[in-house]
Amino acid sequence: MTTKYKLVLIRHGESVYNQQNLFCGWHDADLSETGINEAVKAGKTLKEQGYEFDIAFTSVLKRAIKTLYLLQEELDCHWLPVVRSWRLNERHYGALQGYNKSETAKTYGEDQVKQWRRSYDIPPPKLEKTDSRWAGKEAKYEHMDQGMIPASECLKDTVERTLPFWYDSIVPAIKSGKRVLISAHGNSLRGLIKYLDNMSDLAIIDKNIPTAMPLVYELDENLRPVKDYYLGSAEEVAAAEAKVANQGKAK
Ligand SMILES: O=C(O)[C@@H](CO)OP(=O)(O)O
């Protein structure tokens, strides 16, 4: 297999919800100061390593949009066409959104929290339409088919709504020779990676994505991965992955 295309994926920088260890999902949390710095650092790394892009894709959540903008600042490519879609949003965390992950582990147990966070097909408890956190109340989802607004999602649900966007919008861009950058979220990217790497439902459980660390996928002509790597040292990546995994511990 030889590399024909390079795709760069990045999870947004640390958000204020990540900082406070709260389940975030579709809540539109902003970047924290650390998250801003992480995104700037990632932009500098891409610049130093000579990465250039022709198009970018992101979600409709500001932590991913702002991360992308900070990369554009560093790469001096503000002109880049940017396509935003709710289909790249974070996995919807249902009624858990806004709750502290460690506190939730203390109440329900670490195993239950790990199941909610990482099982492939068990969704967290649903959010009611009457709840003030219901996404249907937000302007950004006004034009969306209201029946598509999730009450909660497991990773399988997330994959099912992300892949149509991959096939319809991202694949044609890659195949037309455009250098693609995707700024998204821990779980929307885990879903995409599961698909690209053909990972089993069990294997994906232990995959955690660090904030704002560029992940390069080299793809062959059929868009199958030839290799993938983070633009960061192995130690840095391992520490950042462990940090994400440990967020669900009771502590
Ligand atoms: O809270 C969330 O929305 C996600 C990403 O921050 O968290 P987790 O890693 O627990 O799936």
From TrEMBL:
Keywords: Glycolysis, Isomerase. PROSITE patterns: PG_MUTASE. The keyword Isomerase applies. GO terms for molecular function: bisphosphoglycerate mutase activity; phosphoglycerate mutase activity. The record marks H185 as: Transition state stabilizer. It catalyses: (2R)-2-phosphoglycerate = (2R)-3-phosphoglycerate; (2R)-3-phospho-glyceroyl phosphate = (2R)-2,3-bisphosphoglycerate + H(+). Its EC number is 5.4.2.11, 5.4.2.4. InterPro entries: His_Pase_superF_clade-1, His_PPase_superfam, PG/BPGM_mutase_AS, Phosphogly_mut1. One of its GO terms (biological process) is glycolytic process. Belongs to the phosphoglycerate mutase family. BPG-dependent PGAM subfamily. This is Phosphoglycerate mutase.
